[in-house]
Each structure stands twice: as structure tokens, then as C-alpha cells.
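Whiteboard transcription, Tuesday session. T.W. wrote the C-alpha cells on the left side:
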């Protein structure tokens, strides 16, 4: 049997196109060929279990070998093999009709993964790194003859009688000059560790030396000898393929260390295991969060039947859970490419919803069963919960019962508990409930103390997501608004009907306002004279709550760029009932008036961290002179 022919792709030569346009992602050739070998191996096991193959299965491992001198890489298996007719069907007929269609569709493709998968080029990814590819194969079918196929990177192939004497397939790649990096052991090991680490069939890559017990010495102590054994690079039965009832906490923690050897232990985990209406397994871990959130993203690995696909899982995992770590495995996630790139459809949406529900149920269970432990973990898990609370209505419906608010006294409350706590003192004259918060307790301490002195509680809102969380709370909570504690003086944060009387005359009020306007001399600071408690500070500098919040969102890239470009404008609240302001109103010397006003204003700036540079130096000098 000897035959020559042309691969049915109706184009002059597809291989220069493959080599040119797919070069940036060449390592996936090994994933594709090893995965094909695993598929062939699993098929023979399946046929045997169904009684459709009665021969000896033998050693079913897949082997990857390389010869640096001969410049070859060989992938071999003991799977179902192929007949010559099957080679013609599966190898020679690429799944598209012509070069025109290929080039037209290629325009939409983003990288090598997408092109290879979309056009059924899994096997042909070998030509990204090889000048010549040979196949030796023998089908499991009774009476089948071994077959041989070779192609040198043109559209011409040769097919003939093979040399294999045992069932299976052996693919040999003759590596081209540009791809000799793949003839290094460490490079092949790196690719196999990435893509084949949890394949369900043993993958052999060379041998390794192990010490085994070999009798005892004269003193009765065990002796050891070194032996060469197969280097099996994968765990064929990883944790997510097992039932949760089979596993202990140590198993989950050991697996986490395998995936992330330099990370701290996770807080807890969720085992996913569902087979209807879709098939999904996996383990998701809640890590201890660090400040650099971007460094912690893309730590969930997506598998399909234990073949690693990608760590870009944003279509499957809700955005607010992208900081979780772990693995997800589902054969039901549709791929518009060969084992790569997700295609959003109803299954993906169902899986997304399922994961959201599982996470919400797990958090609700932790909160209910051990609230103290839940509160201790809140600094780590609060970001997940708040993000989900904001971005996913279904998650919000569950999370509203276990999202926590923390105050400056390190107390924590559910939403209902906090409402009951502050409603008596923090309801204004319009029956609006006002929650006060700080995003920097140290910097805003004087404002917090003023609020506490009036019997008000102050929440701590200092996580990266709290600006959005605050706005969402106002949308969801009836007749409730949130104000930053330094957005106004304490007397005005929660407006009551019992404002103190003004002690200054109208003439004195006008004089004081003129003195401060002149002493400050900046149009971005608007002076207002208010009737406040004599115990409040003489001067307070604040920024309007709405404007400040818009600027904070703009700084986080929240689509408020217009506000971010506006100059900072502040309100200067002068307490007309403070004894210092009375002194200024009664002072005859304009020089003393100005000095006292500037000193009071600078003190207000200092309390907000707004006094810097030369103005801070001048303030210190003036303070020394006043002493």
C-alpha cells in the first residue's frame, strides 16, 4: 500500500499562513497533541468497558520524548489508533472549504488559539514548530494494518504501510530552526506542567531517579538504592474529581499549596460538584487579600475534562469573584476554539449563576454557624461581599443578610442591626436616617470626636470599593443617606430643629466674613458664618459631600472624569458662637484680626491634611510668635 495525494484545503499552501500568523503562541502544539493522545487512550478504555474491545489494554500511559541531536519531539499513546482510511478522513481533510474563507474569517480571530480551534487545526498546530511531521499508527480494529503518514509542510502528503506492531499512535515532529527552544527539557517540562498537570491519563516525560529500600545492613538498618523510574508529570485524579465526602481539610490545603506554593493558607473554600443541568466540578478558595488586587486576579484555572484551557474566566465566574483562587472544570462550557476561549451562551450563564449561588450559600452558612469567626475574616472577605452586593442583584438578595458594617470602635453590625442602633439619634428633621462614615479615621479624628460628642456613630469605610458601596446602600436602603464625617460640621451633618442662637450682631457677622475672605484670599474657599455650638471648632474646612464623592469615583476610574478635572472647592464654616470668633469681631486692630483669622483657618486646614509646603512653614512660625 503506497499512496500520495494533496491535503483537501483548496489553497496553495496553508502552512506558511499557520507559521506566520500563529507564531506567537507556538507552545500550544504540545497541548493539542498530548490532549489528542489522551482522548485516544480514553476511547479505548471506554470501548473495553462497553465490551466492544476485548484485547489487552496494556500500559495506557502517554509518552512525550525528545531527541535534541535528531531535532525531534515524539508523542506516543496506546489508544485506539487509526487506519489509513481514518487518516485520510481526520488528517487530510481540514474543516474549512478554502483559502478565501479562511482569510476572511481569520480577520476576526484574536490569536493562535482562536484560529486553530475555529478551523479544526488542532493537529496542524504541529506545523507551527515542525518542518516535517510523521505519524505511525495501528488501529484497535481486528485485522487492521499499521499505517504511516508524512507531510513536509507543503500541501502534499504521503501515506503508506506503517511499522507499529502494537495498537496506538506515534507522532514525530521534526523541529524547525526557529523552534529549537522546544528541544530543551526544561521548556517541554514547563509546557507540560502548564497544560497537562492534571490530565486523566498518566503522561511520561523521561525518567527520574528514586531511592528505594533494598534490604538491611549489618546493623539491621534499612539500605537504599537508586533506581530509574518513569517520570509521570501529572496527577490523574485531582481533588476536584473526587466527592467532597472523600476529602479532609488537609487535602484541600495541600492542593492549594500545589497550585499556589508561595501563598498564605486560604480562609475557606467551596467544592463545586453538579451534573445537572450542566456538568461542573471544581474548588474555589477565598484567599487572604493583599493590597495589590490586580496581582491576585486571574488565579482561577479553567479545565475541560482535566485539560487546562485558560486562566481568563471572566465569562464564567462573576466579576466580583475574580479574586477567588482555584479550579473549574466543565465539558459543557462551549469553546469556539480548540480547548480555548469561551463563547457566552445559556450554559455559561447558568454556570455563572450557579457559582454565584454557591458562594452566597457558603457565606450565609459561615455567618449563621459561627458569626465570631465570620467577623474575624471580614477584613479579607468584605471586598468580595461588597463587590457582589453592588454588581449582582441575585447575590444582593442573599448578601443583605450577611454584609457587615464596621464602625470606628471596631464593632460590626448587619444592616438591620445598624439601623436599629443609630435611628434614635441620627434621624434628621425630615425623617431621613443619616449614616456617618470616615475613610481615614486618623486624618479625620477631630471630626469623628465631634460627631461622637453629639452621640453619633461613625462607620469605617476605607476599602477600595467603599465609594461605590456607599452609593449602592443609599439606593437600596429606604430614606437613608450617607455622609462623610468631615463633609460638614457636626451640628449640620444631621439637621435638627434645635440650632443654637447666633451671638453676633448682623454688623459683626459681616465684619467677620470680610476679615476671613481677606485673610484666606482664595476663590476656591467659600466662607460661611454659621450658628454652631460654642464647643465646636472656631473654623472648619469641608468639601461638599456630592462633589467629594464624585471626585473620589473619578480618581478610581468610575466614569466621573468631568468632576476629576474640576478644581477642588471647599466650604470654610466659621462658628459665630465660638469665643475666638467673638474676639475677632470685637478686635479693633485689622492686623490682629487678620492674624487670628489666618491662624484659625490654617488650624482647620491642618486638621484636614491640607496645609503643606510654605504655608505650613509660615503657620509654624506664626504659632511660635503667638505663644
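and on the right, the sequence the group agreed on:
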Amino acid at each position: 500500500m503506497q499512496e500520495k495525494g494533496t491535503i483537501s484545503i483548496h489553497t496553495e499552501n496553508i502552512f506558511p499562513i499557520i507559521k506566520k500568523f500563529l507564531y506567537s503562541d507556538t507552545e500550544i502544539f504540545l497541548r493539542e497533541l498530548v490532549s489528542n493522545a489522551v482522548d485516544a487512550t480514553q476511547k479505548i478504555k471506554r470501548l473495553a468497558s462497553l465490551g466492544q474491545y476485548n484485547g489487552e489494554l496494556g500500559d495506557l500511559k502517554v509518552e512525550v520524548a525528545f531527541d535534541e541531536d535528531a531535532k525531534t519531539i515524539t508523542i506516543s499513546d496506546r489508544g485506539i489508533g487509526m487506519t489509513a482510511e481514518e487518516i485520510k478522513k481526520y488528517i487530510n481533510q481540514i474543516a474549512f472549504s478554502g483559502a478565501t474563507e479562511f482569510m476572511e474569517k481569520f480577520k476576526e480571530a484574536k490569536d493562535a488559539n482562536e484560529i486553530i480551534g475555529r478551523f479544526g487545526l488542532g493537529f496542524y498546530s504541529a506545523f507551527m514548530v515542525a518542518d516535517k511531521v510523521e505519524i505511525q499508527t495501528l488501529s484497535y480494529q481486528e485485522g487492521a494494518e499499521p499505517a504511516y503518514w508524512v507531510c513536509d509542510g507543503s500541501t502534499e502528503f504521503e501515506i503508506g504501510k506503517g511499522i507499529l506492531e502494537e495498537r496506538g499512535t506515534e507522532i514525530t515532529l521534526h523541529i524547525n530552526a526557529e523552534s529549537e527552544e522546544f528541544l530543551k527539557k526544561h521548556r517541554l517540562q514547563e509546557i507540560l506542567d502548564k497544560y497537562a498537570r492534571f490530565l486523566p491519563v498518566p503522561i511520561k516525560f523521561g525518567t527520574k531517579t528514586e531511592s528505594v529500600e533494598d534490604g538491611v545492613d549489618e546493623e539491621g538498618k534499612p539500605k537504599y538504592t537508586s533506581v530509574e523510574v518513569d517520570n509521570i508529570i501529572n496527577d490523574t485524579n485531582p481533588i476536584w474529581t473526587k466527592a467532597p465526602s472523600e476529602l479532609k481539610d488537609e487535602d484541600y490545603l495541600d492542593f492549594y499549596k500545589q497550585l499556589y506554593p508561595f501563598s498564605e493558607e486560604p480562609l475557606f473554600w467551596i467544592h463545586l460538584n453538579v451534573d445537572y443541568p450542566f456538568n461542573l466540578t471544581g474548588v474555589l478558595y477565598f484567599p487572604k487579600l493583599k493590597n495589590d488586587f490586580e496581582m491576585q486576579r486571574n488565579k482561577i484555572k479553567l479545565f475541560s475534562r482535566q485539560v487546562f484551557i485558560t486562566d481568563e474566566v471572566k465569562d464564567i465566574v462573576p466579576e466580583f469573584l475574580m479574586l477567588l483562587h482555584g479550579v473549574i472544570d466543565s465539558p459543557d462550557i462551549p469553546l469556539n476554539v480548540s480547548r480555548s476561549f469561551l463563547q457566552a451562551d445559556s450554559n455559561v450563564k447558568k454556570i455563572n449563576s450557579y457559582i454565584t449561588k454557591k458562594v452566597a450559600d457558603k457565606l450565609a452558612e459561615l455567618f449563621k454557624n459561627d458569626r465570631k469567626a465570620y467577623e474575624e475574616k471580614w477584613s479579607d472577605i468584605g471586598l468580595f461581599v461588597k463587590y457582589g452586593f453592588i454588581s449582582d442583584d441575585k447575590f444582593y438578595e442573599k448578601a443583605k443578610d450577611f454584609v457587615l458594617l464596621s464602625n470606628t470602635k471596631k464593632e460590626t453590625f448587619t444592616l438591620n442591626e445598624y439601623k436599629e442602633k443609630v435611628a434614635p439619634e441620627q434621624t434628621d428633621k425630615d425623617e431621613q436616617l443619616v449614616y456617618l462614615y470616615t475613610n481615614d479615621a486618623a486624618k479625620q479624628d477631630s471630626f469623628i470626636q465631634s460627631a461622637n460628642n453629639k452621640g453619633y456613630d461613625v462607620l469605617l469605610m476605607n476599602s477600595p470599593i467603599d465609594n461605590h458601596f456607599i452609593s449602592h446602600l443609599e439606593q437600596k436602603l429606604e430614606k437613608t443617606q450617607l455622609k462623610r464625617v468631615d463633609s460638614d460640621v457636626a451640628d449640620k451633618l444631621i439637621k435638627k430643629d434645635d440650632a443654637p442662637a447666633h451671638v453676633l450682631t448682623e454688623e459683626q457677622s459681616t465684619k467677620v466674613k470680610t476679615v476671613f475672605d481677606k485673610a484666606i484670599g482664595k476663590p476656591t474657599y467659600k466662607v460661611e458664618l454659621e450658628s454652631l455650638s460654642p464647643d465646636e471648632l472656631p473654623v472648619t474646612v469641608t468639601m461638599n459631600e456630592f462633589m467629594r464623592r464624585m471626585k473620589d469615583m473619578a480618581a478610581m476610574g468610575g466614569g466621573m472624569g468631568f468632576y476629576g478635572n474640576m478644581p477642588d472647592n471647599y466650604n470654610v464654616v466659621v462658628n459665630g458662637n465660638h469665643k475666638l470668633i467673638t474676639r475677632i469681631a470685637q478686635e479693633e486692630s485689622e492686623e490682629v484680626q487678620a492674624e487670628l483669622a489666618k491662624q484659625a483657618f490654617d488650624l482647620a486646614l491642618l486638621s484636614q491634611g491640607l496645609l503643606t509646603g510654605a504655608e505650613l512653614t509660615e503657620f509654624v512660625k506664626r504659632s511660635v510668635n503667638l505663644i
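Someone added at the bottom: Residues 346-369 form the longest helix (24 residues).
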